[in-house]
UniProtKB/TrEMBL annotation, chain A:
This is Cysteine desulfurase. It is an enzyme of class 2 (transferase). Its cofactor is pyridoxal 5'-phosphate. One of its GO terms (molecular function) is cysteine desulfurase activity. InterPro entries: Aminotrans_V_dom, Aminotrans_V_PyrdxlP_BS, Cys_dSase_SufS, PyrdxlP-dep_Trfase, PyrdxlP-dep_Trfase_major, PyrdxlP-dep_Trfase_small. Residues 25-393 form the Aminotransferase class V domain. Pfam families: Aminotran_5 (PF00266). Signal peptide: none annotated.
From TrEMBL, chain B:
Belongs to the SufE family. PANTHER family: SUFE-LIKE PROTEIN 2, CHLOROPLASTIC, SULFUR ACCEPTOR PROTEIN CSDE. Gene3D superfamilies: 3.90.1010.10. It comes from the Bacteria. It comes from Marinomonas spartinae. This is Cysteine desulfuration protein SufE. It holds the Pfam family SufE. Residues 11-135 form the Fe-S metabolism associated domain. The lineage of its organism: Bacteria, Pseudomonadati, Pseudomonadota, Gammaproteobacteria, Oceanospirillales. InterPro entries: Fe-S_metab-assoc_dom.
C-alpha cells in the first residue's frame, strides 16, 4: 500500500475552510484532529437510522444500536490488540479513563505506598495521582525530565522499590512530542510488581499499539485525537485487575441485582459504564479507527515523520527560535519559543495568517517550569498535513518575527 | 509619553487596510506604554489568562479640571495584549470613576474591529482587566 496525502485531504471537509482569506493550515492536531467524512457520516447515520438506548430495548432499533455499539468495542479491542473485548471500557476520553483508575487506586493504597509519575505529564495524568495519594496517604514520586526532553531512566530505576504500587507515564508527551520507551519502563515497574498505566492520548494516533506487547495494566486514549468525535474514549484494563477494581460511578447498567439497601455489580465492561452510554460517538469512534486501520500505518508514520523532520530542520536554521524538546524519538510535535514575542503573540499572528497552532502551557505546568519557559508555541502534525504547509508555516513565522522584533 | 485618545486610536486604526499595519500599530502602542515595575508583578496585581498574563496597579490623581481621576499602570507578558491594554487605557486612564462607568468598551472595540480580543474565549485576561477597572471605578464612584 502507498500513501497519497491529496487523497487523504479530500476526505476532510474542514480542510477546505479559509481563515481571513487564507487557506486553513491546521497544525493543532495534538489538541484534536479533524474528522474524515466517513466519521461525520457515521454520526449522522446513527441518529438518522437507529438511535435508541442499548442493551435493554425489546425492539429493532435497540437491537441494531446495540449491535453497532458492541461492534465498535470490538474495533477498539483489535486496534490495541487487547486479549478480550470485556476489557475495553467506554469513557468520555483519556481524562475519564485515568480518573476511573485513580478513583479505584485511592481505595487500594495506604500510607507507605508509593506512586510514580513523570515530570512531563499532562495535568490529567498527574493531578489524578496527586489526589489518589492525598486521599490514601501514599507518596507520589516523579521521574525527572532531561534537557533533551527525554525521561531520566536512571532516576526512574532508582525510584522503583518494593514500595512502588503504581506507575503512570505518557506514551507520547503532549507538550514536547517525546516518545517514551513504554515497554522498557513497564518491564522495570513489573520487576517490583507495580501496576502500570500508559496515558495514550498522544500515542494512539501516531504509533501502533499492542497492549499485550507493552505489558501494561491500563492504556487510556481519546477518540477525538484519532479522527473520532469528542466526548468518547476508551480505557483498556487487564481483566484480572479490572474485575476486582473498585467501581466508580454507580447507577443503571453497572449493577447486577439491587435491593432497597444493597446492590451487586455487573460484569466487565458494564460495571464501569453506569448510565446510558454515548452510543453514537462510540460507533463513530469505531468508524474512525476502522478508517485509520485500513491505511498503511507504516506509510502514515513515515509521512508524519517526514513532516516533523522537515519542520525540525527549518526550525534549527531559523534565527531567534529555540526548540523545546529534542528527544531522539519524537512523534507529531514541534514545541518552540522565540527570542522576541510571547507564545501567545506567535499564536495570534499565525492565526491571522490562517495557521492554527496551540500556545500556552499545554496543561503541563511543571514541565514548562522545568524548561523555564512561560509556555511554548506548539505545532502538531497529522496525517493530512503537507510539506508545503510546513514551508508556509515558516514563511509565516518570518513575518511574525519581523513584526515582533 | 501620554496615551493617544480613543478618538485618535479609532482614527489611526481606520486608516490601515492591512492587518499587518494594524497590528504593528498595536504592538508599537504596547511598546510605548510606560514601563511596569518588575516588583509589581505580584499575585494581587495579576489577572491570569490561560495563554498570557496581565498585571494592573490602580492609583488616583488630582486633575485640575476633572477632580479626582483614576490611573492605571498595566503590563502583560504578551506584547499584543500589552498593546491592547494601551487601547483599553486610552479609554480609562486619567478618567473619573463616572466617565469609566459610562464608557461602552464593547462598542469601542467593535468600532476598532478588535472585539474578538474581548471575547471570554481568548483567554488573554483582557476581559477580566476591563471588569476589574469597572469594579474599581464602581467602588470609587
Amino acid at each position: 500500500m502507498s500513501f497519497d496525502v491529496a487523497a487523504i485531504r479530500e476526505q476532510f471537509p474542514i480542510l477546505k475552510r479559509e481563515i481571513d482569506g487564507n487557506p486553513l493550515i491546521y497544525l493543532d492536531n495534538a489538541a484534536t484532529t479533524q474528522k474524515p467524512q466517513c466519521v461525520i457520516d457515521a454520526l449522522v447515520e446513527y441518529y438518522t437510522t437507529c438511535n435508541s438506548n442499548v442493551h435493554r430495548g425489546a425492539h429493532r432499533l435497540a437491537d441494531e444500536a446495540t449491535r453497532h455499539f458492541e461492534a465498535a468495542r470490538d474495533i477498539v479491542k483489535d486496534f490495541i490488540n487487547a486479549p478480550k473485548r470485556e476489557e475495553v471500557i467506554w469513557t468520555t476520553g483519556t481524562t475519564e479513563g485515568i480518573n476511573i483508575v485513580a478513583n479505584g487506586l485511592a481505595a487500594l493504597l495506604s500510607a507507605g505506598d508509593e506512586v510514580i509519575a513523570t515530570g512531563m505529564e499532562h495535568h490529567a495524568n498527574l493531578v489524578t495521582w496527586q489526589q489518589a495519594c492525598k486521599a490514601s496517604g501514599a507518596t507520589l514520586k516523579t521521574v525527572p525530565v532531561l534537557e533533551s526532553g527525554e525521561l531520566d531512566l536512571d532516576a526512574y530505576q532508582a525510584l522503583l522499590s518494593a514500595h512502588t504500587k503504581f506507575v503512570a507515564f505518557p506514551h507520547v508527551s503532549n507538550a514536547l512530542g517525546t516518545v517514551n520507551p513504554i515497554k522498557e519502563m513497564t518491564a522495570k515497574a513489573k520487576q517490583f510488581g507495580a501496576l502500570v498505566l500508559v496515558d495514550g492520548a498522544q500515542g494512539a494516533a501516531h504509533r501502533k499499539i499492542d497492549v499485550q506487547e507493552i505489558g501494561c495494566d491500563f492504556y487510556a486514549f481519546s477518540g477525538h485525537k484519532i479522527y473520532g468525535p469528542m466526548g468518547i474514549g476508551a480505557l483498556w484494563g487487564k481483566e484480572s485487575v479490572l474485575a476486582e477494581w473498585p467501581v466508580w460511578r454507580t447507577g443503571g447498567e453497572m449493577i447486577s441485582t439491587v435491593t432497597l439497601q444493597d446492590a451487586t455489580w455487573n460484569v466487565l465492561p458494564y460495571r464501569f459504564e453506569a448510565g446510558t452510554p454515548n452510543v453514537g460517538d462510540a460507533i463513530a469512534m469505531g468508524e474512525a479507527i476502522r478508517w485509520l486501520s485500513a491505511l498503511d500505518r507504516e506509510a502514515v508514520e513515515a509521512h508524519e515523520k517526514a513532516l516533523l523532520d522537515h519542520a525540525t530542520a527549518l526550525a534549527e536554521q531559523f534565527e531567534g527560535l529555540t526548540i523545546i524538546g529534542k528527544a531522539r524519538d519524537k512523534a507529531g510535535v514541534l514545541s518552540f519559543v522565540m527570542d522576541h514575542g510571547h507564545p501567545a503573540d506567535i499564536g495570534f499572528l499565525l492565526d491571522r495568517q490562517g495557521i492554527a497552532v496551540r500556545t500556552g502551557d499545554h496543561c503541563a505546568q511543571p514541565l514548562m517550569a522545568r524548561f523555564n519557559v512561560p509556555g511554548t508555541a506548539r505545532v502538531s502534525f497529522s496525517i493530512y498535513n503537507t510539506l508545503e504547509e510546513v514551508d508556509a508555516l515558516f514563511a509565516a513565522l518570518k513575518k511574525v518575527r519581523s513584526m515582533l522584533a | 509619553m501620554s496615551l493617544p485618545s480613543t478618538e485618535d486610536i479609532v482614527d489611526d486604526l481606520s486608516f490601515f487596510d492591512d492587518w499587518e499595519d494594524k497590528y504593528k500599530y498595536i504592538i508599537d502602542l504596547g511598546k510605548s506604554l510606560p514601563a511596569f515595575d518588575e516588583a509589581w508583578r505580584t499575585s494581587e496585581r495579576l489577572v491570569k489568562g490561560c495563554q498570557s498574563n496581565v498585571w494592573i496597579q490602580p492609583g488616583t490623581e488630582q486633575d485640575a479640571q476633572k477632580g479626582e481621576v483614576l490611573t492605571f499602570a498595566v503590563d502583560s507578558d504578551a506584547i499584543i495584549v500589552r498593546g491592547l491594554l494601551g487601547v483599553v487605557l486610552a479609554a480609562f486612564d486619567h478618567k473619573t470613576p463616572q466617565d469609566i462607568l459610562d464608557f461602552n468598551i464593547d462598542e469601542y472595540f467593535a468600532q476598532l474591529d478588535l472585539e474578538r480580543h474581548l471575547s471570554p474565549t481568548r483567554g488573554n485576561g483582557l476581559r477580566s482587566i476591563v471588569g476589574r477597572i469597572k469594579n474599581i471605578a464602581q467602588a470609587a464612584a
